[in-house]
């Protein structure tokens, strides 16, 4: 076969989507996973995600269209829209109008989003961290769930490891379960599939890719990170988040406040201790000392920036040695 693999794994199927490989790219805001990364993952045989967080509705539409033009053949892209954001409904409806392949949402559950997706014939996927939330999502109409463990980057919904939660979620629902949080290698993929997952979601590893939309300084922060550089911070969303230690994380340690220059009320609920959005925009603009740089627990294992296709091919080769 042209892909060079025996492809001896369960076929991931979500709605109409049948990707070549059971690998979904995480939706990372602000500005980290846009059309560049999403289309590269789709072209490499995975499922790509554009993050709608921190960009305008018009910018999101532009990236959806740009990604679609960049996809060769039958690649799949979706949009990640966070329920915690004040523009959640507007972005969700815009994504539906753009006829994305799917919509994925975390940081809360909305009954409406499943109804809107069903009416449009677009699969809606929920990000969960417990079997209870997975069952609720399935009952409300989710086409699949991404179960995210404590090893994930960014905001965390649990303090439990992925492989502790995964079997409980697989047992609780009949819809496809995607394993996320600390997935880095083909061995991780093999372990997740053996435990009943239909596929995996990877965010951190794809940040250190040539096609990722993040600035080079952001990617280099990943490549140079050591295990002792990973810190937990409580953001204004009210959740703990995992980030790479820098000047900004030192500023916000121990519930310290940082003056907000201009508030745009982007969150439905905010502590206003500092501006999470502004801190993410700062790092997206290349200043990775004075903004938040979210990353997964195993970021220190990354030592080079590679093309997306190489990352996926490496994972599949590693997977084959494990089966």
How would you portray this structure in words?
The chain is an alpha/beta fold and about 325 residues long. It has two domains: about 25-215 and about 305-320, Aldolase class I (TIM Barrel), CATH 3.20.20; about 215-300, no CATH class. It contains twelve helices and eleven strands. Strand 10 (about 230-235) and strand 11 form a beta hairpin. The two termini are about 20 Å apart. The mean pLDDT is about 90.
Any descriptors?
323 residues, TIM Barrel, 2 domains, eight-stranded parallel beta sheet, 12 helices, 36% helix, 15% strand
Per-chain topology:
Elements: E1 23-25, H1 35-43, E2 47-51, H2 57-70, E3 76-80, H3 88-97, E4 102-105, H4 111-120, E5 124-128, H5 131-140, E6 144-148, E7 154-155, H6 162-172, E8 177-180, H7 186-194, E9 199-202, H8 204-207, H9 216-224, E10 230-234, E11 240-244, H10 247-252, H11 276-284, H12 308-322
Parallel strand pairs: 1-9, 2-3, 3-4, 4-5, 5-6, 6-8, 8-9
Antiparallel strand pairs: 7-11, 10-11
């Amino acid at each position: 076969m042209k892909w060079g693999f025996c492809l001896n794994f369960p076929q991931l199927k979500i709605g109409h989507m049948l990707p070549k490989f059971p690998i979904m790219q995480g939706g990372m805001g602000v500005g980290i996973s846009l059309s560049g990364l999403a289309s590269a993952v789709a072209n490499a045989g995975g499922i790509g995600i554009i993050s709608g967080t921190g960009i305008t509705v018009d910018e999101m539409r532009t990236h959806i269209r740009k990604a679609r033009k960049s996809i060769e053949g039958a690649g799949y892209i979706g949009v990640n829209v966070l329920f915690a954001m004040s523009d959640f409904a507007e972005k969700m409806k815009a994504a539906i109008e753009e006829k994305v392949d799917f919509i994925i949402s975390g940081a809360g559950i909305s009954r409406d989003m499943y109804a809107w997706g069903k009416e449009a014939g677009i699969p809606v996927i929920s990000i969960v961290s417990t079997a209870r939330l997975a069952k609720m999502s399935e009952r409300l109409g989710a086409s699949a769930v991404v179960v995210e463990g404590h090893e994930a980057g960014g905001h965390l919904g649990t303090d439990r490891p992925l492989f502790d939660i995964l079997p409980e979620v697989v047992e609780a629902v009949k819809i496809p379960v995607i394993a996320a949080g600390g997935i880095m290698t083909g061995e991780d993929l093999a372990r997740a599939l053996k435990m009943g997952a239909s596929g995996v979601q990877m965010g951190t590893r794809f940040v250190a890719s040539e096609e990722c939309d993040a600035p080079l300084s952001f990617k280099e922060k990943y490549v140079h990170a050591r295990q002792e550089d990973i810190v937990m911070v409580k953001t204004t969303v009210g959740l703990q988040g995992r980030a790479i230690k820098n000047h900004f994380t030192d500023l916000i340690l121990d519930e310290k406040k940082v003056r907000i220059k201009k508030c745009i009320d982007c969150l439905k609920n905010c502590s206003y201790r500092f501006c999470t959005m502004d801190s993410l925009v700062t790092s997206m603009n290349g200043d990775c000392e004075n903004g938040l740089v979210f990353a997964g627990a195993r970021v220190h294992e990354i030592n080079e920036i590679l093309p997306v296709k190489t990352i996926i091919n490496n994972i599949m080769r590693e997977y084959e040695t494990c089966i």
